[in-house]
Amino acid sequence: GNSVTQMEGPVTLSEEAFLTINCTYTATGYPSLFWYVQYPGEGLQLLLKATKADDKGSNKGFEATYRKETTSFHLEKGSVQVSDSAVYFCAPQESNTGKLIFGQGTTLQVKP
Amino acid sequence: DGGITQSPKYLFRKEGQNVTLSCEQNLNHDAMYWYRQDPGQGLRLIYYSQIVNDFQKGDIAEGYSVSREKKESFPLTVTSAQKNPTAFYLCASSRTGANEQYFGPGTRLTVT
Questions:
Q1: How many Cα atoms occupy the beta-carbon half-sphere of A56 within 13 Å?
Q2: Which residues are paired to B5 by β-bridges?
Q3: Which residues contact B73 (CB under 8 A, 6 or more apart)?
């Protein structure tokens, strides 16, 4: 079945460090791909998306490129801030149902 | 001010009682979803509805029921048949099943 694998957390970085959170997926067809962010005790917020191969999604300094050949959608940010501390979820979407496929998420901790 | 509202934020129930969680959206979205999140884990789909008066089971529907009588509303009932109901419940909606989903703030249910 469809699935997603994210790097194990927590990822701990100093402020202004470079961030990469790896995400690979298995899915039938060509799913849309999303990154969501969850702050403690809250719902998920859409961070960015890409709907076809080679698309780059970007928002708030975060970027991810849809790599069909490697079925990956790695999240990057050039300079993290303490306020970026949260749990990040990569989620491919089944095209027929709209269902999002979630992994366990990656916790990011940014220290001042 | 458009968005998704879930109420209440915290809910406490005794074992053996049914409880209904509210989800309302004023985004004019056709599709709505219910997810369950357990500590340190990703989200799992309970039920979804792509149109009024129609809904489908997700991956973990046992012990839950839903209705979709109005476009704006998609209440979830956690029945006494759900063996482990304590969790964080998240509602989401999207314009159609093929678009990005927007999440509500969640309801944390504790059953003792």
A1: 6
A2: B24
A3: B22, B23, B24
> pLDDT for A56-94, tens place per residue?
999 999 999 999 999 999 999 999 999 999 999 999 998
Distance CA B23, CA B46 (A): 14
CA angle B31–A40–A66, rounded 5-degree value: 55
DSSP letter string over A62-106? EEEE-BTTTTB--EEESS--GGG-EEEEEEEE-TTT-PBP----E
Confidence of residue B58 (pLDDT cuts 50, 70, 90): very high
Query: Strands of B19-25's sheet, edge to edge?
Result: B4-7, B19-25, B76-78, B64-66
Where do we find the tokens 């790097």?
A: A7
Structure tokens at A36: 């969501």
| Under 8 Å between Cβ of B34 and B47 | yes
Tens of pLDDT, residues B21-37? 999 999 999 999 999 99
Q: Which residues of B touch A43 (CB under 8 A)?
A: 6, 90, 103-106
A43 with B105: Cβ contact below 8 A:
yes
Q: With CA atoms as reference, report the closest residue to B8 among B21, B27, B19.
A: B21
Q: Residues for chain B: how many in total?
A: 112
Tens of pLDDT, residues B67-82: 999 999 999 999 998 9
Q: What is the pLDDT of residue B1?
A: 59
Q: How far is B42 from chain A (nearest CA, A)?
A: 4
